[in-house]
């Protein structure tokens, strides 16, 4: 049983199967296209939305978190690049885990990647709807009915909060009273079926349908669209940075860490959510002209460019506006120019729509290709691997992805899945980083990427001791005040034990520094995510395991090959 659960695919077999595919995907992507796809996926809702809540918690020091997150993703990106240079096959972390850890781990990571791509895209679609509505109101004075712009849970919560606040007699600002009254009026104006108020996010559904159609008709068309959107939004972001520099007040950068480093770390989910798209490049291996050379470059180039943009934007925003003013601000870039330069706010609103559209596109391309790979291995029905004879895209998988994201964006509350998406992505990053350690040695070939080996024998244990010294107060408090209800500190203690074991193994086995750092830094970021998201993540994993044992385990291609051999 154990051998069946952890049966692996060899790199040679994967490449051979890919070459024998009867209806291959179009090879049209270059290193420039991959870099642009990476930027398209990373520069989106994070820079236009979630950076606001992160700035409120961490102040100007949020720029440090972007650096920490970028370094974490950098270690992981190098590990992705190593896999991509060896395995030029679609499937991303799913395929890589199949080679490194075996079938069960591959299924788990494939199931977790649904959180990153499909579920994560629901959040992006909802953000797009908010920006689009803002654009309609401020540029064209068009007001859509409020019940067409919001999910049921958010509408109900806003109504309850508003009625409670207004009836409490608390001293409220005129702007706060106006927003509360607006929420109450919007709730009361919604149509009803029986006693149920009707709310749904129609613009989010429409953009998902349009982007799904674009992903369906071909990678060449998607590439051109993504490249255009990247040019536009990067130009706008650079313009915002330059224009914003004239409004920066350096006094707003003091104190740099108003809530200490713990305040900075509260923004982990929001900031990391901004970075999760760079691995989408790895799903496009079969559509890349020279994947073993260009995919590693595309990942690293896009990550470096996006990190620079994020740091500059973070410093610009917190320099223009005091960090404390970003509480509950969903559109921080537009917010800082609202009173200072309204015409810039309108440009930002247009760019936000374009930026989130490009993220939707790349993720809608990525998810079907993962399902296609899982279908080829027999873990999903054959229909998921079906390639359209004309457009040469995974047609059925693209449609299913569109349906899941479209329906989800109509009714699901965005806050519910942001943290969940980050957990799924970090989990994938840990397996990819750790998986590199299990690959056979490879000689450096001209024109191909090879992960440099840096012996972590002494470096990792020393860094662990430095970590212990830096967080000594938290460690003492965690152990002296230990109780199971304090879940944050329980997770912290679990990480300490895990990191200690990894440090010992690295010392004994001379593990490479880069993949070990990828594992440890992603693991630490996971423990900073709220417990409620962990609970939902466990539920998600249990459902995935049930599907695997009811279908995938019995229909696995490797399983059938073993039976035929016997």
TrEMBL record:
Which InterPro entries does the UniProt record give? AA/rel_permease1, CAT_C
Major place of residence: membrane
Pfam families recorded: AA_permease_2, AA_permease_C
Q: Which GO terms describe its molecular function?
A: amino acid transmembrane transporter activity
GO cellular component annotations of the record: membrane
Q: Which residues cross the membrane?
A: 34-56, 62-83, 104-128, 198-218, 230-248, 260-278, 299-320, 347-366, 395-414, 420-439, 451-470, 490-508, 513-531, 537-553
Q: Give the way it sits in the membrane.
A: Multi-pass membrane protein
List UniProt keywords, sorted A-Z.
Membrane, Transmembrane, Transmembrane helix, Transport
Looking at the record, the residues that make up the Cationic amino acid transporter C-terminal domain are 513-556
Taxonomic superkingdom? Bacteria
List the subcellular locations. Answer: Membrane
What is the protein name for this chain? Amino acid permease
Instruction: Tell me the organism.
Output: Moheibacter lacus
Classification lineage: Bacteria, Pseudomonadati, Bacteroidota, Flavobacteriia, Flavobacteriales
